Fold this sequence. Notes:
- This protein is mainly alpha-helical.
- Helix 4 packs antiparallel against helix 5.
- Helix content is 68%, strand content 0%.
Amino acid sequence: MPLVISQHHLSAGCGILSIMNLTDSLLPADLLFSANFAWLLVGLYALRLAPWRVLLINPRLQHVFLGASVILYLIWIFEVGVHPALGFHLLGVTVYTLMFGWSLGIIGSSLIMLAITVNSGDWAALAMNALLLGALPVSVSYGVYVFVDRYLPHHLFIYIFLCAFFNAMLAAGVTVLTLVALLVATETYPFARISNEYLPFVPLYLFPEGLINGMMTTVLIGLRPDWLKTYDDERYLKS
Length: 239
């Protein structure tokens, strides 16, 4: 859900925040500038851990990564400027992370946000958007997968339900709440208004987010299990 709030305050008529990319003028300039250092550190660490050798010698993986990134890019820009009063749409980061892992998830989401910024022109907010809408949900998604893989039985339904369905809901929920906390802390919007006019709609978004990521993961398991880096038939079908 590229959670992006419009430059204008909450619409008096619709009363719902528009979900798109953060703009240059929405948050304090010093906060947006400091986000560049955090994004740089995360990006450098992801570049260091990325499986470049596997990616370079495997053209099929390159095509899958490029195709999935293009699809995610189209999903993220699908509603930009179309439904400013109710802009919830699919985030899709969880299945993307399950396909490529943490490092490529960070790199891919950062490149997607860079492409979106080329269109929007909000360069000062690029790092903050990349952290909120890319690094944060990717890290949550991968963290849940690691926890489930390490401490719970390796069962197909556990993987689908916890690593995909529940995981996507949690990652999207953490993204929403982090952005809300950021907006309230910077006094961009009063919490009373956000809690009355936006937060009640969040549950209506989270379930479809989890359902779609779960369905996409299930389809990949059935048709292209080799596209999921975090999944292995031998490991999850033995049970």
